[in-house]
Specification:
This protein is an alpha/beta fold. It is built from 10 helices and 15 strands. The radius of gyration is 15 Å and the shape is globular. It starts with a strand and ends with a helix.
């Protein structure tokens, strides 16, 4: 199955808890066996158990592609040691450190929150080896929560502006679509975790929403 639904720790915010980075999916260690099996079967990536600074909100704190990743500065040295075995790592510091909420990355480009300083954008571009665009989505700066992407497509908050869509398509090099998850939530990045193989959405996600997610991410 290319798309399915699940809850993690009683929450349907799958994208906050799970991060797909390149050929790996990082998730909390305390997941039940059925949820782990669903993550493996749907996303089709090598599964890595992880916490970041003791937090299970992996998807909110980590973002990247096959070249490298950015992680929040609450990550411990041992967390970073684990991550560096899967790619180059940049630690995001200060008030703009929730990498998963502030970055939307695939193998072609990165959409970044305008709250990230210019020098940070340059380092992200260098580590992930792609162009980086700083823009809002629907006028908001938590772009990682407002979009979900793979190398085949991107699903965005329904209120994204035409200007934002044009810029995002240029840097990500995939066709954007708009949609919702989890029974009407526009925060599709928080509600969905996606790879090139499949997508896992929160359990409240409706059939029409799942169809839209499949279309947007090229999973049909």
């Amino acid at each position: 199955m290319t798309i399915d639904t699940a809850d993690i720790f009683g929450s349907d915010q799958i994208g906050i808890h799970v991060a797909c980075v390149g050929q790996y999916v990082f998730h909390p260690a305390e997941l039940t066996a059925p949820i782990k099996e669903k993550i493996d079967n749907v996303l089709g990536l090598e599964s890595i158990e992880l916490s970041i600074g003791g937090s299970n909100l992996i998807g909110a704190l980590l973002s990247g592609n096959s070249h490298g990743m950015a992680v929040a500065d609450i990550a411990t040295e041992s967390d970073i040691d684990i991550l560096t075995s899967y790619g180059d790592v940049i630690v995001m510091e200060g008030g703009v450190n929730t990498a998963g909420n502030l970055l939307l990355a695939n193998e072609s480009g990165v959409v970044a929150s305008p709250s990230i300083p210019e020098e940070g954008l340059e380092i992200i571009s260098e580590v992930m080896k792609v162009d980086v665009l700083a823009t809002t989505i629907a006028g908001q700066d938590v772009v990682g929560s407002l979009g979900v992407t793979n190398d085949q497509g991107i699903l965005l908050h329904p209120d994204v502006t035409p200007e934002e869509v044009m810029q995002i398509e240029q840097v990500m090099k995939v066709p954007p679509m708009v949609g919702t998850a989890c029974f009407g939530s526009p925060y599709v990045g928080a509600g969905i975790c996606a790879s090139n193989n499949g997508a896992l959405a929160g359990s409240e996600t409706t059939g029409p929403e799942m169809n839209r997610i499949e279309d947007a991410l090229g999973l049909i």
